[in-house]
Structures are given as structure tokens and as C-alpha cells.
Specification:
2 copies of one chain form a homodimer. Helix content of chain A is 64%, strand content 3%. With 499 residues, chain A is mainly α. Chain A has 2 domains: 156 residues; 330 residues, Orthogonal Bundle (Neurolysin, domain 3). In chain A, strands 1-3-2 form a 3-stranded mixed β-sheet, sandwiched between helices. Chain A starts with a helix and ends in a 5-residue tail after the last helix. Chains A and B meet through helix 1 and helix 2 of A and helix 1 and helix 2 of B.
Amino acid sequence: MSTSQEWFDKQSRELVHLESILEMLGWDQNTTMPSSGAGPRAQQSASLAALYHQRLNRPRWSEVLGELESREQDQWTGAAVREMRRKYDRATRIPEALVRELAETVSLGYEAWVAARKESDFEAFRPWLERILRLKRQEAACLATGDCLYDALLDDYEPGMTVRQLDPVFSRLRPQLTRLLGRIQEASHQPPAELLTGRYPRAAQEAFGRNVLSAIGFDWKAGRLDVSPHPFCCGFSPQDVRITTRYGEDSFVSSFFGIVHEGGHALYEQGLGGDRYGSPACQSISLGIHESQSRLWENQVARSRPFWEYWYPKLRQAFPGQLDTVPLDSFLRGVNRVEASLIRVEADEVTYGLHIILRYELEKALLDQDLPVSDLEGIWVERMREYLGIVPGNAADGVLQDTHWSCGLVGYFPTYLLGNLYAAQIYGRARQTFCDLDTQFAFGQYLPLREWLREQIHRKGRTRTAGELILEISGEPLDSRYLLRYLEEKFCRLYELSG
Amino acid sequence: MSTSQEWFDKQSRELVHLESILEMLGWDQNTTMPSSGAGPRAQQSASLAALYHQRLNRPRWSEVLGELESREQDQWTGAAVREMRRKYDRATRIPEALVRELAETVSLGYEAWVAARKESDFEAFRPWLERILRLKRQEAACLATGDCLYDALLDDYEPGMTVRQLDPVFSRLRPQLTRLLGRIQEASHQPPAELLTGRYPRAAQEAFGRNVLSAIGFDWKAGRLDVSPHPFCCGFSPQDVRITTRYGEDSFVSSFFGIVHEGGHALYEQGLGGDRYGSPACQSISLGIHESQSRLWENQVARSRPFWEYWYPKLRQAFPGQLDTVPLDSFLRGVNRVEASLIRVEADEVTYGLHIILRYELEKALLDQDLPVSDLEGIWVERMREYLGIVPGNAADGVLQDTHWSCGLVGYFPTYLLGNLYAAQIYGRARQTFCDLDTQFAFGQYLPLREWLREQIHRKGRTRTAGELILEISGEPLDSRYLLRYLEEKFCRLYELSG
């Protein structure tokens, strides 16, 4: 082994460790940290982020990467080198002072968002959002990846994806979704909104969620489930993957599907394989692929009839008296109820994409300064009316509902919809591979699917790009017709619409 | 501000942040981390520790410290420079090869100790202790602080303390404690051993402990209480201080006094004052002073009659039926029961010092090679008989009971007894300052005492040495008569001994 390779291995492993620690600090802040700790934690995170940045900025990287790139490599080493090149280019192009200012601003900006959302006061958060956008513009200008500022930010979450690719996919899908929503809204058969509300004690919800996580193959020796204001998944290593949810006691729906969603993310992280931890290639491909795993388990699996044929009796047992008068058919319509609603994270499968396209369009305009932050709250309301036909009554249910911008995540939202698109395409292939998938689900068997996903996706780490992976699995490039066909088939049946 | 001062501030702040993060990783491992996470966590911690060491070893430290030491400084800057000098000297005087050999040896030595204690087989641990002592001698020789090898090690835990100061204090105190123990053992009035055992549900213990922590002024916005195998306190910053305990349901005694003990440590950490966080001077003075704060709240406050005049009715309410037949007088004798026992961590206030003095004498002799390791087990038994009148039936209850030596902690034990000595001397002064302290306690008022401690000790950070602080507070240097007087008064009354 050459000296360059040794240096590469040692240095890239150290960087992976520092990334894990930074994530750990964030997890703690969201789940565990006492409130006064925010100030010092921001300083600690900023120092570590700066140190990380310095280590990634060492001049020798350029020489070592150049040398390793000129060699024939096995696919894991090649992927590790590719990934370090991405990181190195991003790091060397952004000055340390900007990194530090961003880290401190988003740490405090997050606290400001928590307070502003509580008071439903967009004006209290507005100056923070302006500061964050100004810094993100600087960051994008330094990166200069793709054709526009937005591409440079998007590339961080979905490597290789561009506005030029996304715009046609999203602008084609948007009217199709709005049309499907319209047909569903006109159906005579509408499940009542309050069908599934009742008394669902938190402890029983948690126990039921844990049972389902165990069944889909979540490894508790390598993971945890906790509570946080906004559900998320963190993998500090494949052996330590933590998910969170939040509970409301009048309904189990939001927390349950939240748990399965984060559980899908966690299966990906745990499936990466601990033996390769420390390599930059032992990581997920992109946020879109990550989201495909959470959506597949949440929607394709856990909102399906066969899934509930097994679990519905157990759910009724877990909450005695709450669902006695609700037959399985009605229950399925209840958990798949389509409704134009205000909150993205509670949106159904049909309207979800519309929420994302709205955010994608607005954040692109904010970044390009085509839309001033002072107009954001108003434009939000207008677009909601246009795409979904409803408007939020306050900022907490509108523009303040998501944490992303407060954390500096601009260019992140489209990956959610990409996740749905990838999920539909991957799941289509899974159904061809296993002709008895419905039977398996109805018997509570989910490990064959988890193993197939592990083999097809998880264990490959970053040795493929998202585009290569989708082609490898489905034999076709990304195609929005998979998602549309899946939605039309499912909801035509549920709402008894004509084909 | 000079360039050297700026460099110093930035670099020392970064090191403080890394220390906080390393502590955070340890806290998480002990309280929260899923079991499979241990391997990757060890790698993450090792990477960060190595990075910390590199940053502390930067050649510019020598020049900057030299320059700042030659200047007049305000007390906070002076203390920060002094503290960085200590850290820098320790980091640079010990060769890397020795650091590595020590780390490897104590890591294996710890495993050997765990196995040896399980089998109660001192011979299995003996070669490891010899190796560890040999390396600690080398470390002490490199450090060359104080008059002897032991001083150099002691200085790491109790800066400025020496064998020359400790020997007369401990050798005077030892026969006095043995004599007091003898008088107590001859008293006709002995509380029964099982007086306070019963059914104490964990949730009620935790709730009661939290109430007491709130009353003594623990700030929940800047702290947490969790569970871990061994109770401890971690301050990641004055705004984020976390303590742990463990619960047994047949008695509340060990967990309750554990909570108050760690709570005392936490009040010190919270009291350091967040505005100075990041300065190396905004830290506790020494382990002995830290221990004085935990002991003062645990013993002087929470084992006193006035304290329980307020809390005993609440304790009875918290555990219905468990203490109905135990009047307050008996209860107080129960929680202050004195007994010659084998295990240090379970020892009462009178015998605790004897356990420490025994360890101090033996580890000093081991380090100086006046005592061969092969004779250690025999000498342990002899001294136990002499000081406490009892002997262990096996090595696990004797020489193998503590983990310290296996972890390379030589010179650490005396800080526990120093904590008791400082606590008595500080508390003596507090009683002169507040003539109505007993009345305050009996009315559940503890904040005046906390404020006084904050002002006298906590807020001063490291601007004083332990010796200076004790002199400043009490008007006298360290004096063991305070502890002896406190113990004699308290236990003569409890055991109805003649003055």
C-alpha cells in the first residue's frame, strides 16, 4: 500500500469520525439537551465544524486525491476517493469564516425558529432567515457547481441533480397531482375526517411502534427510539442509528407512520454494514435515495391492505374500544385519506408532492432574490390556494412549519419528492421479484423485503450514484410515471373512481 | 489586544470545546448509547482525543505562554495562562511512546482487573499493577513536579498539593478517626442494620430526588438527571450539567444520597458562570474542591436533622407505609449509621477517611518501591485490621475493590478525603456567616447557602488555588480539626456518647 493510500485512509477515517460526532451533538441538542445549553453547544459545534473544515482543507489532499484518481481502483476505494473529492472541493471553496458564521447562525436560528413557531410569529424568525439566506448565497457562489446558485446547494443533498433536470419533472407532475386530487375530492365515497381520532395513550403508541419496528427488522442493539419536536433519523455509525418521533394522544396516525418512516431511514443506515464504517464510501448515496427507503416502508408497505391484515387486530388490542366500530376497509380509507391540508409532514401521498413543489419553487426564488423574505408569508398563502385550494390561518401552520430553513437546509426539500419517485420505481421492481409480497405482509413477514433492499441498495454504500442505482435496479432511468401509476391505481381503488 | 493574546484565547477556547465534546461522548456512552455502538464510539473518541492532543502540542504554545507569563495580567487571564501551562507541560513532557504504552497497558490492565476481581484473584492482576506502576513512575519522572514521584501524579488531580502537606494531616487524623470509631462501636445505642429497607418504587425515588434537587437550587434548564451503572456528574458547560444515579428498590438510601452528592457537584459546575465558558480558568479548581461541594450537600446538609425535619414527612408520603413505624430520631440514626465495613464506596462519614488513608499510604509506598506489589494483599489485610478492626475475606472485598489503579489513577484517592476536609472547613465558615442555617434547612430554604457557595467558590473558577481559597474563606490553611470536630459533635449526639 502506497503512502498516499495510507494517508488517505487515515485522514478520511478521521473525518468520518468527526462527522459522526457533529451529528451526535445535533441529536443531543434535539432530544436531550437542557434548554440553556444552546449557547455553549453552538460554540462547541462551531469549533468542531471549523476543525473539520481545517482538516479537510489540508493542502496534501489535493496531491493525494490527484494521485489516487489517476490509478485503477476497486469500486469501494474508487467510491471513497470520489466522495472525498466532492467534500474537498466543497471545503476548499468555502472560507473558514463563512463556515463558522453559518454554524453559529443556524444553531441560534434553530432556537429562534422553535420560539417563533411556538408564538406563530414569522416576523420574529424573518431576520434569521434573511441572515441564513445571505450566507447560503455566499456558500453557493463559492461552490459554483452547476448552472445556478440553487444547483450548487442541491448538489450537496442530491449529488448530480440539477434544476434543469428537476424543473420538467416537477412541472409535469404538479398538474397531474392537482388533477388526481380534484378527482378524489369529487368522489362520493369520502372517509370521515374524525374516523380514527380517539384516546391513544402515549405509552401504548410507543409499544405498538416498537413492535412494528422489530418486525421490519430494526436492530435495537444498534439503535434507539426517542422523542423530539421534529422526527428525524441519525446514523452515527451502522451500529448506532437513532430515530425520533412525537406523540399526540388523540390519534396514533401521525406518530405511527412517523416511526415507520424514520424506521425505513434507519434500516438503510443499519444496512450499510459496520465492517466498512470509517470509509467515506460507507454512507448513503443521496437524500433522495435515503427518502426512498423511508417512503417505501411508510407508504408502499405500511399503508397497504396486506400490512394491516396482520397488524389491525393487534392495533385494536393495543387501544381497547377505540376502533371496535371501524372495519378494516374503513380503516384503510382512514389511514390513506386524501385531503388538501396545511402541514407537509401530515400530508397524504397524493398532496405531499404539491407541498414539496411549492417549497422548491419558493426557496429557489428566495435564493435568487426574486422573492424578498418579507413577501414570503404572503406568497406561501397564494400558492397554497392555487395548488391545494386551502390557506393557513397562521404562520405556525404555514411558512413556519418546517425546521429546514432555520437549519440552513436550502435545496433539501426536492429530495423528499425524489424519494417518493425513487420509492415507486424501486418497489415496482420488488413486486416483480417477489410474487408473494402481499402474502408475506399479511403474515407479518418483512425480512425478505428488508434483505432484498439491503442487497440491492444498503450494502452498496456509495459505490453507485443515484442514477446508476435506479438504472441497475429497475432497468430504466428515473421516471415519474411509476409514482403516478402507483398513486392512480391505489387511490382509484380506495375511492372507487373509474379507471 | 496582542496577537499572542488573541491566539491564546482562540486556541484555548477550542481546546475547552473539545474537552466538552469528549465528555459528551462519554456521557452518551454511559447513559444512552445502544450496546453495538461501543466499537465505533471508541474509534470516534480516539480520533477526537488524538486531535485534541495534536492541537495542544502545537509549537507556538511554548512561545505564546512564555510571552504571556512575562506580562502583568488580570486574575482571570493569569489563571487561564497558568492552567494552559499545566496542560501544555503535561502534554509535551511525556513522550508519545510512553503515552501510547500507558494507554494500552491500562486498557488491558482494566480488563485484567475486571476478570481478577470476579475471581477474587489478586495474583492474576499483580503483573498488570506492576507494569502500570512502572509506567506511572516514568510518567512522574518526566513531569518532575514537586519533591517526589508521588507529588507529580497528585498534582494532576489536586494542583499544588504535596506529600509534605498531606502526610502530617492524614497521619494525625487517622488515629483520631480510629478512636472515634471505637467509641461509637461501644455505644449501647446501635441502630439496626435493616431499619430502612423496604419497598421503594423507582419512579417515586426519582420524583423525590428531583424535588430535593430543585430545592437545593439545581437549575433544570441547565441540567439533567439520568441513569447509569455508576453515578457521575458531567459539566459540558455551566449551562449544561448532567448527573446520573442508579436505583435499587429495596432501599432509597444509596440512590438518594447519590443524587444529592452528584447534585452538589452539579451546583459547582452550574455556578462557574456561563459568561466565562471557553476560558481554561472557568473550571473547577481541583478534584478535592469539587468533592467538597458534593460532600457538603450530601453530608453536612442532607444527613442533618434540620434537613429531615422538613423532608421526612414528604419522604413518608412518597413511600406510603414504609416508614410509619420509624420516628425521625431513629431515621436519622439510620441514615448516619456508622459501621466498620470493607467497601470504601459504602463507608459512612467516620470510617470513610480510614479507607482513603490506607490507600494513600499504600499507593505511595508502591510508587516509591518501598512496598513490593507481591506484599500488597498482605499489607492491605494488616492495615484494615489496624485501622478498622476488620479484615476482608477475599481480594474482591479488599485490595481489588477499586478500579482506580487498573485505570492508571495513582494519586487520585487522597482527593476524596481532601473533599471531606475542605467541606468541613468551608461549612464551619458558612455556619458562622448564617446564624440561622438550621432554621433555614428546617423550612426547606437552601438557596442562601447555595448563593454563598457560589460567591465564595463557584464563581471564582480557577482564579485561586485550593490552598488560597481555603485560606480566603476560613482565614486558616487546611486543618483537619474542622472535620474531626464536626464528626465528634454529630456522632456523640447521635450515639449519645459523653462529650
